């Protein structure tokens, strides 16, 4: 079976009895193990909703989500091990860098030794050594983004989801962080689904691109194929 599969997944938001929004409309696609896929489309086309359903923060109105052939649709986020990295980092402001990165390991009842070891490894890999006792408001944007990446990676996720991770960064940091994410993905052989509305970003990093429009998938393929048929 494919590593991750969405089968006819839909999401309707019920605002009032008479007003509904069909945010995602019968979406199906697969992601292979170790693949880097970008999900692209204009604002409001349903990208975030799709990611949140995969992470388990939202339940599909219809359809099924499968991981390695098994349905995860009824599992909560903590049972899926599919973390999401957000554009606003979503770090815990009252926790320092070490505690932010350690959070998921504590929740999973790792031993103190294992936590110290795994957090140190992440700090080394993401150039955060020496910053362990700093708090998020003492960090630059790029540092905060690296902490949020470390926090997601440290739990050895099955798949890592990114929701426009670069939108708060300046041009130089975007390029740097983008390269960082790609490097991590290749070192750790991790599977990535990466949402962006930036076409250049979407076509430059992935193995494959999925294009959404008004809740539906209108195109998918290798970046070159998308380039040639925009
Ligand atoms: P994107 O990430 O591509 O910008 P979203 O998934 O955020 O798209 O939104 C898709 C559609 O669903 C939009 O019309 C948006 O306004 C609507 N929407 C998103 N979240 C909610 C919500 N919690 N309640 C109601 N409507 C929502
Ligand atoms: P994004 O498109 O990056 O998800 P938005 O600014 O569209 O960001 O949405 C921010 C938050 O508001 C999200 O939690 C989203 O689910 C929610 N949201 C978006 N559109 C609506 C809507 N029409 N009604 C209620 N909540 C919404």
UniProtKB/TrEMBL annotation:
The keyword ATP-binding applies. Residues 4-230 form the ABC transporter domain. GO terms for molecular function: ABC-type transporter activity; ATP binding; ATP hydrolysis activity. Keywords: ATP-binding, Nucleotide-binding, Transport. One of its GO terms (cellular component) is ATP-binding cassette (ABC) transporter complex. It comes from the Bacteria. The keyword Metal-binding does not apply. This is ABC-type spermidine/putrescine transport system, ATPase component. It comes from Sphaerochaeta pleomorpha (strain ATCC BAA-1885 / DSM 22778 / Grapes). The lineage of its organism: Bacteria, Pseudomonadati, Spirochaetota, Spirochaetia, Spirochaetales.
């Amino acid at each position: 079976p494919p590593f991750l599969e969405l089968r006819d997944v839909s999401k309707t938001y019920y605002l009032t009895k008479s007003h509904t929004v069909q945010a995602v409309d019968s979406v199906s696609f697969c992601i292979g193990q170790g693949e880097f896929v970008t999900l692209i489309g204009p604002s409001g086309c349903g990208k975030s909703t799709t990611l949140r359903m995969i992470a388990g923060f939202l339940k599909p109105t219809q359809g099924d989500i499968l991981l390695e052939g098994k349905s995860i649709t009824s599992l909560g986020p903590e049972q899926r091990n599919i973390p999401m990295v957000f554009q606003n980092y979503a770090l815990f402001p009252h926790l320092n860098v070490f505690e932010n990165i350690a959070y998921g390991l504590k929740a999973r009842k790792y031993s103190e030794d294992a936590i110290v070891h795994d957090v140190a490894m992440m700090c080394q890999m993401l150039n955060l050594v020496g910053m362990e006792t700093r708090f998020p408001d003492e960090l630059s944007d790029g540092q905060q983004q690296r902490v949020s990446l470390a926090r997601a990676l440290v739990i050895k996720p099955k798949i890592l989801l990114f929701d426009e991770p670069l939108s708060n960064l300046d041009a130089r940091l975007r390029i740097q962080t983008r390269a960082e994410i790609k490097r991590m993905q290749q070192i750790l052989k991790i599977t990535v689904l990466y949402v962006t509305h930036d076409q250049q970003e979407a076509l430059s990093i992935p193995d494959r691109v999925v294009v959404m429009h008004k809740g539906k998938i209108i195109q998918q393929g290798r970046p070159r194929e998308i380039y040639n048929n925009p």
